[in-house]
Prior knowledge:
By secondary structure, the protein is of the alpha/beta class. It has helices at residues 27-38, 54-60, 92-100, 107-116, 130-143, 213-226, 240-246, 297-312, 317-325, 353-366, 421-430, 441-451, 469-478, and strands spanning 18-22, 42-47, 64-67, 80-83, 104-106, 120-125, 149-156, 161-164, 170-174, 179-181, 184-187, 196-199, 232-236, 252-257, 264-271, 276-282, 285-292, 335-340, 343-348, 372-376, 401-405, 435-438, 457-461.
Amino acid sequence: xxxxxxxxxxxxxxxxxxxxxxxxxxxxxxxxxxxxxxxxxxxxxxxxxxxxxxxxxxxxxxxxxxxxxxxxxxxxxxxxxxxxxxxxxxxxxxxxxxxxxxxxxxxxxxxxxxxxxxxxxxxxxxxxxxxxxxxxxxxxxxxxxxxxxxxxxxxxxxxxxxxxxxxxxxxxxxxxxxxxxxxxxxxxxxxxxxxxxxxxxxxxxxxxxxxxxxxxxxxxxxxxxxxxxxxxxxxxxxxxxxxxxxxxxxxxxxxxxxxxxxxxxxxxxxxxxxxxxxxxxxxxxxxxxxxxxxxxxxxxxxxxxxxxxxxxxxxxxxxxxxxxxxxxxxxxxxxxxxxxxxxxxxxxxxxxxxxxxxxxxxxxxxxxxxxxxxxxxxxxxxxxxxxxxxxxxxxxxxxxxxxxxxxxxxxxxxxxxxxxxxxxxxxxxxxxxxxxxxxxxxxxxxxxxxxxxxxxxxxxxxxxxxxxxxxxxxxxxxx
Length: 479
């Protein structure tokens, strides 16, 4: 039996000069490593999959990364070890960590201790829209000269990175409900000490760690319970589950949504090819019209959440509007990767059924009159299970053509528990949606190369790299 970590060693030593980060190539963990390096620590790391762009970023930051996990990576006995949540207790470095009796903490613990510190913590949570909303918030604060720190799950184009130490009073953190570490199965966001927290939505997700929707709701109830009395929950009250979870909050709740009665109400929304314009009401008093480059009603709601937070922090509407207009997007969120042969190729992180539906609906409205081709790779632990099999067929209605990449099966599941791309295609056809499934990325590219015509919009939906399909498609169409 492998040695177990000693809970007494889960702490921050007074003197830390060297830090080793296990699972360093994750987006959040890599960002933390970068911030620690900028704070003057000697940082090393290890991971099983070391490849660009994270490998390039870490190398340019002067962070040495070992390919693969091994006891030897800890042989220099760093002052502190940060354990990413991809690490299991059977990982050879986790076993060595226990044997060496080195001090260790989780990634969220380290973010709280070294990054948030005494800042006023602004945490964006929810099943959908966390990265976009937190990026909007950080960009608008920076535009107002408030120099926020932040750590976000996507590269924010205004900064060219997904983290910043910041000189100001505020720290913006994307708060994930996924578990913290193998020695702490609670959600990450419980470590971020929010003064203000946004809850965009609550749906079932992360089927690998949550048994059901009730378990997800319980994690958000814990977030509500730790809010300080002088804090504020900016809550999307159109979502009945969010409304239920915040009902007995011990702090202020600033509700937002489209329906009458919420404090911050979204009015008319006009989605154009260049921008989205929307009107905002507070307590049914007209506030003004705002503009964002992000298409879709769901993104107007994300912007509305940011308006509510910024107003509470004391910014006036002119400052807020200017901040929203300064936003230039986030990598992999409705990001236009390029155009070739008159075909626009878009990259998006959508994988949950609701995100797929809302993203495609927004793109269809933004690119009116053009054929929308959705290319979907089910890649997450949840999307490769049958849990959403009967939901996905209703999420692609906005697409004119749907191409599904057959996913790598989860070998820990029986065949009857796995998602079936072939069945999804059959169900889409029953719904009068033209759809095909493919066994490989190469065959998807062959089909697109033969069938794309000028004016098409190809939306690639995946939470992974999808074998670099975006660049390969642009190259193929450009030849």
